[in-house]
Amino acid sequence: MHSRRRLPDAGPEITVVDIWRIDDGLIAEGWEIIEPVAQAAANLVWWEPAER
Q: Which of 15, 21, 26, 46 is deepest in the core (most CB within 10 A)?
């Protein structure tokens, strides 16, 4: 799941990615990646198509 959130007390906007591994219908493992939106936008270069 990907979401954008604002931290309390007028904190910075953050991007959050939650990754779950499901086993037998239950969440068996979970990971969370949190970074400021400005930093996350800089990491989106892998979305650009490769040059031919």
A: 15
